[in-house]
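Next comes this protein:
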Amino acid sequence: MYDNYIFDLYGTLVDIRTNEEKPYLWRKMSEFYTSLGASYTPSQLRNRFRRLEGELAGRMGSGPQALGQKDVLVEPNLTEVFQGLFLEKGVPCHWQTARVTAVFFRTLSRQALRVYDGVKETLGELRRRGGRVYLLSNAQSDFTRPELELLGLADCFDGILLSSEEGCKKPCAAFFQRLLERYGLDPARSIMVGNDEFSDIAGAAGMGMDSLYLHTATSPRPQGKYKPTYCVMDGDWGKAAVILLSEENRRNLI
């Protein structure tokens, strides 16, 4: 058995579908900003949002590179972008208002959200048996923390690291290292569970950590470049649970 079980969120524990390009989203966001004094047409708002997002990522990326840390994949906090859209129009915006705006945006863009069958039971059983359970997710804090509450997952983990809060994302070693150091985890006694061959499986391999690849409907097409310790290709969480809860963690289960 492992001591530590590290999970990706979206596509691994949770099925989510979003659409950030639909006209309805930007029309409603335009109405929201305009009603608070920051007047944008839907197309102006969408274009300016994307530009500010890119500028923020660019500023963040120059820091690690200047320090010779070219392997660090930066992750901007989009709440800063929502705030900047108000400030550009001369409208004062406290951080809490920006957070509410981010939550509103996510609510409009979200089309489906559910926990995969068997996830809560498996997480609970791992902890009951003495394992420690962690979330390591490439995610926006003001999108994801409310969704964890909505799904009843917020209290299922011994620790949660989100990329927008840490400023970096999987598969870079810095993100994994922060989790290991913050909670004193031994990578040799830990397993990463995820649905993305590059972010999750490659990232775990780089840390000397075992992994379980769970191929689900939203998984990127696997290239077969990185080999997980365990593999479930049909998205069956029942099979994943058998592997994780097995006393021997048998490697021949698929």
